[in-house]
């Protein structure tokens, strides 16, 4: 979580401004995390994207604040690597931006993971996500990880534009 907290309306505006700023370097970018779950108070901005130009993305994000080291508490200045899968920026407004970078193949899983439980602040499921639909990830024959259905569940079929699919031979299928 970032250093500061902001209300949902301000966070939504900030996230959309960042997506607009970085759009020339992206094939796709979507707001995730507590903003997408509609939490009234937001601790950080989470965006999931598929970069078209990573170097340009890093430069564009430099305009929003200071790049900081991912995975450590607090604000530790950091120079991001062009092959990073996760960029973190301490925004000039005092909250952190967590920018998760995926590929067309892993987009769905990454977006689902970064969006969270699929339940909004009132406990209602949203966007077709069902809480608890997955209980584990498993390795597929091609070496990639796929979502395995929860025991007794039917799993998730591959949807257009999403990288999730039920794996063959998954436990519980």
Known CATH architecture of the largest domain: 2-Layer Sandwich
Largest sheet properties? 5 strands, mixed
Report low-confidence residues grouped into runs of 5 or more.
Answer: 127-140, 143-173
The percent range for strand residues is: 25-35%
Order of helices and strands: EHEHEEHEEEHEE
Principal-axes geometry comes out as globular
Estimate the helix proportion, in percent.
10-25%
Count of runs of 4 or more consecutive helical residues: 4
Structural class: alpha+beta
Task: Trace the largest sheet across and list its strands.
Answer: 2-4-7-6-5
CATH superfamily of the largest domain: Beta Polymerase, domain 2
Number of domains: 2
State the CATH class of the largest domain.
Alpha Beta
CATH topology of the largest domain: Beta Polymerase, domain 2
How many strands?
A: 9
Rg measurement, Å:
17 Å
Mean pLDDT over the residues? 76
Straight-line N-to-C gap: 36 Å
